[in-house]
Amino acid sequence: MPKPKVLLLGGAGFIGFGIASFLAQQRDCDLTIADQFSPGQKDSEFTELVARHNITLIEGDFTDPALFDYLESEYDYVYMLAAVVGVNRCLEHPEEVIRINTALTVNTLAWLRRSRVRRVLFASSSECYAGTTTAFNYPVPTGEDVPLCVEDIRHPRYTYAVTKMLGESAFLNCAVPYGFEATVVRYQNVFGPRMGFKHVIPHLVERFLSASENPFQIYGADQTRAFCYISDAVEGSVRAVESPRAAGKVYHIGATEEVSIETLVRAVGDIMGYRGGYARAPTYPGSVARRCPDISKARAELGYQPKVPWREGLERTVAWYCRFFESGARIPDGGFAAPEGLSYRGAGSA
Length: 350
Ligand SMILES: NC(=O)c1ccc[n+]([C@@H]2O[C@H](COP(=O)([O-])OP(=O)(O)OC[C@H]3O[C@@H](n4cnc5c(N)ncnc54)[C@H](O)[C@@H]3O)[C@@H](O)[C@H]2O)c1
What we know:
The chain has 350 residues and is of the alpha/beta class. It has helices at residues 14-26, 44-52, 87-92, 94-113, 127-136, 159-178, 200-210, 230-242, 261-271, 296-302, 310-326, and strands at 5-9, 30-35, 56-59, 74-80, 116-125, 181-187, 190-191, 216-219, 224-226, 228-229, 250-253, 258-260, 278-281.
């Protein structure tokens, strides 16, 4: 029997690398990673994985439909992870978030229409229902069936969520006419080593290392999130793709322990031996107050069970970023912009 063929579109990214590592070790399959490869992504860990497991690489910007001609016309599983992500990018270049994420969805579907693919996983986000919990007081933890909405269609912050809603609808509704099965996972605050530099945790490590703040500012101290360690997100994704029950369905993949930003910041401070004081500060415009997924559907239908407690995952993540920063390596993607330093385009909030 031939090995299953797996394509990871956007597979050089944080979650893609995690899925590739897992599949390379746990499944006997032919792996292909298609990505535009942002600076720093082809580090020694990545190139070692590719060489050891004979992974095929296809490099290019997949907003160009011609790139899809380099893919094969048959795969068992496709993980559609490619997207522009991050609040900074939405605030600074909403027009690019709309263009790139929409083109990636449209081009992937055009390719799927002429290809033979069994199952596609579309990587969506908790941002799709963030507005719902705020505006309509839906319960937290939040399940998959809540209506999706954004609070202010004019605000650049929400361009990412709008493209994820388009992706969910597009993959789920094109699946039957185009002859593939679609599963949507909404990832929720996934973190871990290699998560990039435009996120809160790496930025906290950088700030604590620089030892330039005392008191240490905590932006959005009372907000809560449920932090999902990368290996748990990977396992949930693979289960969702491989489960016969998951065709046509949406799953929340995340962790269940709600942690305040203040608790997170102080935990990073503790791990890094910070002994100074803390001060509260405002947060991003449009940042949701509480977020925690209800994962009972994924538990019941996929056997998904997050295993790594957030504090344990945090220790591993902080250790990885400390090693990175202390090695003197340059941040490859421009890093994180603190909320008070950001200028953003667009109409602003209502
Ligand atoms: N990490 C999270 O907590 C989280 C939460 C919700 C949703 N998601 C979604 O999961 C997916 C993976 O997220 P991630 O954290 O690994 O992000 P990431 O930025 O690390 O990975 C995305 C990958 O897509 C690639 N890409 C972007 N534009 C491309 C283009 N035009 N052509 C080819 N490749 C392109 C990037 O180079 C990158 O390798 C994304 O779709 C993201 O929206 C992630």
